[in-house]
Amino acid sequence: MKLGRAFGSVGGLTLTSRILALVRDTLQASYVGANFASDAFLVAFRLPNMFRALFAEGAFSAAFIPMFNRRVAEGGGLAAGIDFAERALAVLLPLLVVFTGAMMIAAWPVTYLLSGGFNNPTADQFAYAVTLSRITLPYLLLISLVSLFGGILNSLHKFWLNAAAPILLNVAMVAGLWFFHGDNPYETAMVQAGSVTVGGILQLLLMLWGVRRAGASLRLRRPRIDPEIKRLAKLILPAAIGAGAIQINLLISTALAGRLLDEGAISYIYYADRLNQLPLGLIGISLGTILLPTLSRMLGERKDAEAVHLQNRGVELALFLTLPATIAFVSISLPLVTGIFQHGQFTREAAVATAWTLSAFSLGLPAYVLIKVLIPGYYARSDTRTPLNFALVSVAVNIVGNIVLIPTIGYLGPPLATAASALINLTLLWRTLSKRGHFHVDAALKRRLPRLILAALAMGVSLYFLAPLFGDDFSGPLGTRVTALALLVAAGGAVYAIACFALGAFRLSELRAMLKRAPAEADPPAAQL
Questions:
Q1: What is the dihedral of CA 115, 398, 18, 462, to 10 degrees?
Q2: CA dihedral 355, 360, 364, 368 (to 10 degrees)
Q3: Could you please report the per-residue DSSP string of 403-417?
Q4: Neighbours of 497 (CB within 10 A)
Q5: In a designed cystine with 37, which of 84, 185, 371, 376 is the match (CB 3.0 to 4.6 A)?
Q6: Do the Cβ atoms of 248 and 395 come closer than 8 Å?
Q7: Is 421:401 a contact under the CB 8 Å cutoff?
Q8: Residue 148: which residues within 8 A CB-CB, separation 6 or more?
Q9: Sign of the torsion angle spanned by Cα atoms 151, 155, 158, 163
Q10: Which 3 state secondary structure label does DSSP give 525?
Q11: CA-angle at 45, arms to 39 and 51, nearest 5°
């Protein structure tokens, strides 16, 4: 498998989704702003969004895909895999219905825990936040079912459908903001909450169509707990915590920020995280989606050397794309935030605070992405316990960091604590995988890494001096903003590309090879960057 080509397919759809998410956040900043209505919606959206990250992009796939592939590979073919998936659905569906109903009934304490009780809200304000939570909670059921069907499609290497599903959530939310926004922030936030559940329904319908088209439709059965379902359940919980450490850390940070900081702090953290999530989703999640089923197949065929080679190319590709994003978020965070968010209800003060928060988040961005690349090395071997243990360490670091930093540096405390916890998590994952002999840095990665760092730094210096030349364009009319941001980003990209070639990080022939279609007989041993 050509990793670069597969990444291009999944990454292109993920990029489309993230761009729509950025449009959504821009409209939300304009129509809602950074105030209690915004904070209330973001708290209501936090739990469904965390479930999306944990299950759609992490835990369920981590546990389900290796078991599904093993059933197929052991001689039963696709029919055996579908049989396993039907048994999983029979148990999962009633559990999800009960769990979602219980969460809706308990929306008051759930909202309190997620927000830390906010900071001195009125009774009406808190009741409003609870209502928003009840509207968004059905998404938990919907996205978990989407995860099951998406896991089947990924196992069959139908990556594009699962990658396209998040686009529908963002389409629903953008449409809600554009066509149905209210006369004040509170009405608009209510529309956004309803759009979340509508988006989940659209995602589920797409997945149902996809598995039917792939010849893998599932029937409803009577629930039965057998040994395989027990094993699946045992793998899911550790995987949820291990793969979702970043989301869990953000959840803790949001609750502490809501409790300890003034109104608007949750919004600063959210908007900064949304920009930070753009490269994380495009690079980390896309690579993780591709690596897990491919590594599972390679290891099942005892092609350990090819699996190590594939992960090296994954690290290489991740750093090639992540390092310039990290440097850009540090060097031009204010122009980016101003150009994208500062208009309507979103003030200059909010833009400055969000820019500082973005720079703090970005310090951990390479770690966030590399965690997504390394964790499949554990999950493909059905080891979900080790990432869980490391995730618990990172969560503890995050809690301590928040408690120490929030009273001293305010809203910058949560992103810095989150970045530090991600770096520790990455270090533990990397060292353990290496000690077990499951991963080592090869000569190509050793040669390229310092060159990529130098190229990214050269780009950062150029952006720092280029940004002031645009004057007030980043806060001007929409067309002026878009043009200024496009020119600045294009200039930075050009400098980075030239520096990469000049320093020898990549050769043109290597990039061409990366995008060529692999011959059928070379898949998967010929996995390349």
A1: 130
A2: -50
A3: HHHHHHHGGGHHHHH
A4: 16
A5: 185
A6: yes
A7: yes
A8: 60, 64, 85, 88, 89, 92
A9: positive
A10: coil
A11: 145
* Cα–Cα distance measured from residue 419 to residue 80, given in angstroms and rounded to the nearest whole number: 42
Q: Does pLDDT of 3 surpass 80?
A: no
Torsion of CA 422, 424, 430, 436, to 10 degrees: -130
Size of the chain, expressed as the number of residues it contains = 529
List, for residues 321-351, the tens digit of each pLDDT value: 899 999 999 999 999 999 888 877 778 888 8
Residue 236 lies in a domain: yes
| Distance between CA atoms of residues 147 and 526, nearest Å | 29
Whether residue 1 is predicted with pLDDT greater than 60 in this model: the reply is: no
Which region, left, alpha or beta, applies to residue 80 given φ > 0 means left and ψ of -120 to 50 means alpha?
A: alpha
CB atoms within 10 A of CB 477: 10
> SS3 letters for 212-226?
HHCCCCCCCCCCCCC
CA dihedral (295, 300, 306, 307) positive or negative: positive
User: pLDDT tens digits, residue range 119-164?
Assistant: 677 778 888 888 998 999 898 889 888 888 887 887 777 777 777 8
Confidence (pTM):
0.68
Which segments within 6-122 are labelled E, that is strand?
Answer: none
Closest CA to 354 of 265, 257, 484: 265
Backbone angles phi and psi of 120, in degrees to 5: 60, 55
- Cα atoms in the 13 Å half-sphere on the side-chain side of 175: 11
Give 390's Cβ-side CA count (13 Å radius). 26
Angle at 332 between CA 505 and CA 488, to 5 degrees: 70
* Structural element, H or E, at residue 78: helix 77-105
526, part of any domain: no
What distances in angstroms separate CA 496 from CA 21, 304, 364, 499, one per listed residue? Answer: 26, 34, 20, 5
Cβ-in-10-Å burial (0-12, 13-18, 19+) of 19 comes to middle
| Axis-axis angle for helices 185-213, 36-51 (nearest 10) | 20
For residue 172, what pLDDT is reported? 94
Q: Is 528 helix (H, G, I), strand (E, B) or coil?
A: strand
SS3 141: helix
pLDDT of residue 376: 81
CB atoms within 10 A of CB 8: 15
Residue ranges making up the domain that contains 92 = 3-519
CA distance 363 to 330: 8
- The answer to whether residue 525 sits within a structural domain is no
Angstrom distances, CA of residue 242 to CA of 54, 235, 437: 9, 11, 21
Rounded to an integer, what distance in angstroms lies between the CA atom of residue 425 and that of residue 419? 10
Distance CA 306, CA 178 (A): 48
> Is 81 within the bounds of a domain?
yes
- Cα–Cα distance measured from residue 24 to residue 152, given in angstroms and rounded to the nearest whole number: 29
List pLDDT tens digits, range 477-523: 888 988 999 999 999 999 999 999 899 887 766 666 554 544 433 33
Domains held by the chain: number: 1
User: 306 with 527: CB under 8 angstroms?
Assistant: yes
Provide the strand spans (E) within 372-505: none
